[in-house]
Amino acid sequence: MQQQQKVAALSYSFPEEVLEHVFSFIDSTKDRGSISLVCKSWYEIERWCRRRVFVGNCYAITPAMVIKRFPKVRSITLKGKPHFADFNLVPEGWGGYVCPWIKAMAVAFPCLEEIKLKRMVISDDCLDLIAKSFKNFKVLVLISCEGFTTDGLASIAANCRNLRELDLRESEVEDICGHWLSHFPDSYTSLVSLNISCLANEVNFPALERLVSRCPNMHTLRLNRAAPLDKLANLLRGAPQLVELGTGAYTSEMRPEVFTNLAAAFSGCKQMKGLSGFWDVLPSYLPAVYPVCSRLTSLNLSYATIQSPDLIKLVGQCQSLQRLWVLDYIEDAGLDMLAASCKDLRELRVFPSDPFGLEANVALTEQGLVSVSEGCPKLHSVLYFCRQMTNAALNTIARNRPNMTRFRLCIIEPRTPDYLTLQSLDSGFGAIVEHCKDLQRLSLSGLLTDRVFEHIGTYAKKLEMLSVAFAGDSDLGLHHVLSGCDNLRKLEIRDCPFGDKALLANAAKLETMRSLWMSSCSVSYGACKLLGQKLPRLNVEVIDERGPPNLRPDSNPVEKLYIYRTISGPRLDMPGYVWTMEDDSAYLE
Amino acid sequence: MSPPLLLPEEEGQSNPSTVASASPQSLDRFSQTAAGLKERNYLGLSDCSSVDSSTVPSLSDEKKENLNLKATELRLGLPGSQSPERDLDLFPLNSTKLDEKPLFPLLPTKDGICSLSQKTVVSGNKRGFADTLEVFPEAKYTANTRVNILLSPRPSGAQPTTIKEMPKKVVQESPCTANGTGAPISGSAPAAKAQVVGWPPIRSFRKNSLATTSKNNDEVDGKPGAAALFVKVSMDGAPYLRKVDLRNYTTYQELSSDLEKMFSCFTLGQCGSHGGPGKEMLSESKLKDFLHGSEYVVTYEDKDGDWMLVGDVPWDMFIDTCKRLKIMKGSDAIGLAPRAMEKSKSRS
């Protein structure tokens, strides 16, 4: 009793300012959330000093709610469309409009410094509003976004005097005019990071050169494909302090002076740690980057259509490599070399060079991945496209790499079995989840039955995101996952025979997850309605381009289903092919 | 046979061994798990009649063992049921039967019938739509069962994931026809693999980059339709855009028919934003009136930024230069045709 009284006294005597100061060392959203749950006063103190907000689903909460709780936000991250939108499974016009957020924040957060968006739609007007509303605006990151043009970028360039970062990674930008870059005033020198790799057309190169050379803190520069190679040397000379460089097209008429210039320029880049770009590579120009290879920790060659021998020569020089993204031209031989040379490798992504071809065009098999899993003790993140796999290989990989946290395997042909035994790959993936106890993200492929889901439900206790396609036999599969995976946040499923039963039996689980996507499955309209009615804190959205689902029988399966938890009720900006299943309260009015 | 489903209250009396043997794969421990299934009946499901057994029949054991993947067909809806007739069947297929005027004629013609057919599509390698049918003699293609058009077997026997009347978005295959139950047509595999939407899971940016690379690269055997070529399609008055993959088509006719499917709901006022009255079905007569009064044309923006009428140039040339599509009223498109002709002449 006395102890409790002492503790209570302590908390009353602790001034707010001190607590605030302590909290300022804690940045992670999760930890901040925990702090706010300790007691009411901590909740209050914490909310006034929270500077960074992460909203994983822009429809889970309204801008007004965020503003009300956290009045002094400086950085906001918002995500819009479901992940499967990346693969054209979400029709155009679905949503993810950032405009309401920008408008609200323009009024409420005049000190806002950072906006980071993923899979959202942002217009030029919005960009203009950002440019003119936030005097200290510093960071704009637009990943896989769309809806804007280079005119919007011009406004940002012209108005954001303190801009440090402009990153347009993989966004769809309507490229009207390359002169938007010239809108950065001559007095502007604070650029640190620029990623324009998604732009289709040439930017005004002289303007770019001047910009880069007058910004002494330039750290990251990612050019677009249209940027000519013969101008790269000059650019690099103006910014030898660059740490991350994305080249443009890495090809030009073979001219000795271009090559020597380039090699010399790279030699001058003593801080360079990351390279990307490399579209249209002319192999004879590759040696120009050799001077920086030994220091490289990150190398993205996933657009470089160069063959295995050239790849091996290049990658073989990069002993410090931690991250490699590459096309399957690297082949098993290249991966063997990687395993032997790059002992610090943490992340490997192998993309398909010919994903729609009928047969393998390269000698890349499961063996390459097995080699890397053996040779690289720190490897924990894998994305691997291939055409064949065995349970034995998966088993070996699992045992080699129990530290695996992200494992995404895409066997190109759906439902491909173990090519040696012709069995399903259930036991292979089972081994992965059993041995890799910290697995956070998993994508499945190949021939899979309900059994694999049983394994996942049993072992994958830390799993947060699961992607499933063309797998399973029955609702039991889905049930295993929903009932077993305690930490599941995002589940996306396509073309699986999962219907109503598992969903309805595990309905409450859906409120503990960020979202569930199911397309080309067997969930009936009736079940959707039921879920929508009974679970008011979920938005159950039916996407069906055939027309209103109530014109068809309740038992008719819906085309696509997107369920997400929300505290802001049904959204109001849906296109004509999306219906939100209303909750019961709607009928009471 | 259906696998046993989860809810203990439904399977109450079934003993574990039945459950185990019914599963396609022998799940040795399954019986334990089944018995130990926690009842998570949050919604009082056993009372709920709307919850139907809507799961797809599982693969039988033999089939699994033979890996006769061709025979395993995932279908939506109750086992044994055909997909229901839908109002979209009101739209006639405008391919072999040209007596119905297409909604979006690709060229404004006097007699109002899509004159595109095989004449203007001159590229030697591309076959007109009707020609492709001859390659697949087993195909029972009829104009009325549009169902057939949308399905295509993939030579390796993997599942057609586009199920019957799935709208255009889902259809990615070239027009190899199949009958509704997905019996594969062997032997005449198209050069490029029939594509499934969003599979393999590669982002558009990467797909488009690959496409450009293979065009630039001499060594790569330029398979037609090797990579996707998405362009935006807008329509005057429609609330939102669509995207089409031009590589899915080999003729203007296919493109036209898909566009028609996609945008028909706009022209008929079916898909509006919510709150509108668009929930009634249109009467057939109203629809026919509309079709015959067809006033829309399809135009495209080419690499030079000019707007041209779709259909003037050979298909290959078209997909090379087309940046985006726009469906506009015929009256707005006057004056485009002559320009297109001149341009293609000056190019060749």
TrEMBL record, chain A:
PANTHER family: F-BOX/TPR REPEAT PROTEIN POF3, PROTEIN TRANSPORT INHIBITOR RESPONSE 1. It comes from Medicago truncatula (Barrel medic). Keywords: Auxin signaling pathway, Developmental protein, Nucleus, Ubl conjugation pathway. Pathway: Protein modification; protein ubiquitination. It comes from the Eukaryota. The lineage of its organism: Eukaryota, Viridiplantae, Streptophyta, Embryophyta, Tracheophyta. GO terms for biological process: cellular response to phosphate starvation; lateral root formation; pollen maturation; SCF-dependent proteasomal ubiquitin-dependent protein catabolic process; stamen development. Residues 14-55 form the F-box domain. GO terms for molecular function: auxin binding; auxin receptor activity; inositol hexakisphosphate binding. It is found in: Nucleus. This is Putative F-box domain, leucine-rich repeat domain, L domain-containing protein. GO terms for cellular component: nucleus; SCF ubiquitin ligase complex.
From TrEMBL, chain B:
InterPro entries: AUX/IAA_dom, AUX_IAA, PB1-like. It is found in: Nucleus. Its main location: nucleus. Keywords: Auxin signaling pathway, Nucleus, Repressor, Transcription, Transcription regulation. GO terms for biological process: auxin-activated signaling pathway; regulation of DNA-templated transcription. One of its GO terms (cellular component) is nucleus. It comes from the Eukaryota. It holds the Pfam family AUX_IAA. Residues 13-33 have a biased composition (Polar residues). The keyword DNA-binding does not apply. Belongs to the Aux/IAA family. Aux/IAA proteins are short-lived transcriptional factors that function as repressors of early auxin response genes at low auxin concentrations. Repression is thought to result from the interaction with auxin response factors (ARFs), proteins that bind to the auxin-responsive promoter element (AuxRE). Formation of heterodimers with ARF proteins may alter their ability to modulate early auxin response genes expression. This is Auxin-induced protein. It comes from Medicago truncatula (Barrel medic). The lineage of its organism: Eukaryota, Viridiplantae, Streptophyta, Embryophyta, Tracheophyta.
